[in-house]
Each structure stands twice: as C-alpha cells, then as structure tokens.
User: What shape does this take?
Amino acid sequence: MTSLSTMQTKIPSLGYALLGLLLKPASGYDLRKIFSSTSMRTYSDSPGAIYPALARLEKQGLIRGTIEKGSGLRRRRIFRLTPRGIAELKKWIAAPITLGELTRGHELFMLRFAFSEPVLGAAASLALLQSLQAALKPYLLALRKELEILKPVVASSGRLAFEYGLRASELLERWAQQAISTYSKHSNGGLP
Amino acid sequence: MTSLSTMQTKIPSLGYALLGLLLKPASGYDLRKIFSSTSMRTYSDSPGAIYPALARLEKQGLIRGTIEKGSGLRRRRIFRLTPRGIAELKKWIAAPITLGELTRGHELFMLRFAFSEPVLGAAASLALLQSLQAALKPYLLALRKELEILKPVVASSGRLAFEYGLRASELLERWAQQAISTYSKHSNGGLP
DNA sequence: TATGACATGTAATCTGTTACATGATTAG
DNA sequence: CTAATCATGTAACAGATTACATGTCATA
Assistant: This one.
C-alpha cells in the first residue's frame, strides 16, 4: 500500500559508496579499479556488481552517464551525480546514527564519515562524530554487561572473540574523541 | 563442468554460524532468539533467513532435524549436527587465514575463532591465532604504505576513516598476541 | 598474430529481506 | 475471549557472485 508520493529511493551500501566516489566523475571501470586496488576492497570489483548498481542509480535519477569518445580506446561511459543524487548523498550523511548501525561492524559509519567533509563540510563531520559518541555510550554499557553474563558460560575462545568486539568499540570511542578535537579547531563548507 | 565427485558444499557465513551454534542441539526458534538477543546480532533473526538456511544445511546432510512433541507447545524441530556437519565445521576452522579474510571486517575470523576451542580444542585456537599473526604482518605494512599515499590526497574525514581501519587492525594484532599468551599455557582437546 | 590491458555488459543462480500466513498454548 | 508468546514456514523481490560474452587497442 505504498503511495507514489511516499515511494522512496532505497539504496544499498554499495550504492552510497558509488554516489560518494562520483563526487569525482568516473566510469564503471574507474570505480572497479578503486574497489580492487584501494582500501575500499570491502566492495566487490566484479562487473556483475558494479554495472547493474550504476544502472539502478541512473534509473533512479541519481546519476547520469554520458558516452565519451575520442580518447582512442573503447567507448567509456562517464557517470556524474545529478542534483537529486547530491541531495540523496547529503540526506544520507546528515542522518543521525542509530544504535543498530554500531552492531554490524563500523564500515558503514566510516563510509558515511569519509564522505561527510567533501559533501557537507567539517561542521557536518563534527555533528556525525558527536552523534556517534552519543550512540556509543549506551552501546558500550550494554556490551560490558553482556560480557559479565557471558564470562562464565562460554569457552574462552568465545569470550576472547567477544572481548575483541568490545575493544573495537572502545577504540571507536577514543577515535571519535580524537577526531572531534581535530575538527573543533576550524570548520569550512562542503559542496555549494 | 563440475564433476559430481568434486562438487563441494559451499556454505555462507550464516551457515557456519548455525553449524557452530548447533554444537548444542536447538530449534530454529532457539537460534533466532540467540541472534536477536546476544552479541550475534550481526545475523538476522528473521524466519525468512533462518528456516531456509536450516533447510539447506539439512539438504546438504550437515544437520538433521527431528520433531519433538510432548512438551505441550506447538511441535518443535530440534536440529543436530551430523558427522558430515561436524567434519565440515572442523575443516572450516582448521583452514589457514587468507589475507582476503582481513580485508572485509574481522567478524568472520572471530566467528571461526569463537568455535575453534569447543570444536577442535585449545591447540587449534592457538594455531588459528598464529596464522592470524602471520597474515596480519604484511597486511599492516600495506595499510601503512597506503596511508602515506592517501594522506595528501583525500579530505581529512577520509583520512581519519582510513586511520580507524588501520588502528582496528593494529588492535587485532595486539589482541592476538595477548590471546596467544592465554593459550600457550595449557591445551586441552575439543570434540572427540 | 597472439596476448594482455582496457572497457562494458548479461545470464544463471544463490542468499537475504520483507511481509505475510498459520497454528498452539498460556496469562489476564 | 483476547492478547501475547511460542513456533514454523512461504512467497515476492532485491542484490551479489560467478561465469561468460563482446569488443578495442597496443605491443611483443
């Protein structure tokens, strides 16, 4: 019973990664190379993942691909963000962090944060970090409580694995604190 | 062109999580509760994920579900590991760590490690940790090198995000070192 | 002329998400 | 009797993986 006006563009993690990278116009092949050769290896560089994802974003009107010829090689389609795409990126970055976002690894948060400064400026990065701190506080409490319950129950390898998860979240907290002090010195704007 | 004898059971992450949890026989509902209420929230607790996954594992002959009645409520199917299931679990845990396993978050490694002691004993846990250390050494070098290249290029939010990834891997290294010292004191056996 | 890097795409298949359907038992 | 909890499942759909198909250009 979804009304047309309420129909909202649902975008998976890969979609946001592509939107963020397309702050600089690029071809599908360029994006594949980024995924295969840099720290963004988290995303598959397979053509079967990227080309369909780009096609979906284009169908949603968030990016636009134009054929570029003349540079000698096979034709390339260069993709660029549309105004709607930029708006979607901004919306995604500005959203507050939910507790659930901390549960399944920190990669998604880091993707958002990485793009926050070029898209919305340092003030938005700071806001994201503060939102992270607020969400982290009750989450860490819950994890520590769970560790106390778990301690006597599970084998020590299970307990050690849990402890790593706790420590990674504690690391995130320290990282956020330090990043905040980096940012609170000066702020500048993002996209116009 | 896959020959029948070569045909190998391919198991996704959720499948291994279920196999490991089924060291203690449980119903689908029991497993859902574990995913919804404990630190294993990484996995969806939705019936649409778990019941089909259990059905696949059963079709592969790795688990066996038996209807249990009499306890008053609606019938429950209790699942147990078969000998083939136990063998598959052992094979998974004993496999050496690949560099690729470090790239996409550390959750998969931690799942393996958590089950290593109950399934194969402390000696296997130790071996896994040493394999981790060996894989981590070149990986950390590569990350540090990439950071040097990235530093002047990306916005500071991007650099900070990358730095978190590096620090999480350094944390993993320290955690492994400490876990090794926990284990090297004494070792005991796993499943018979 | 054959190989390899550049470049884009499709098809089959598998898995997970969301939403729905069903039914038994207990507590209020 | 009604709601909540226990308990198992299915169906439609979206997204990812794997493998394949195609084509250009440079170079050995």
About this structure: Residues 10, 12, 14, 44, 46, 48-49, 52-53, 56, 72-75 of chain B lie near DNA strand C (CB under 10 Å from a C1'). The radius of gyration of chain B is 20 Å. The first strand of chain B starts at residue 26 and ends at 27.
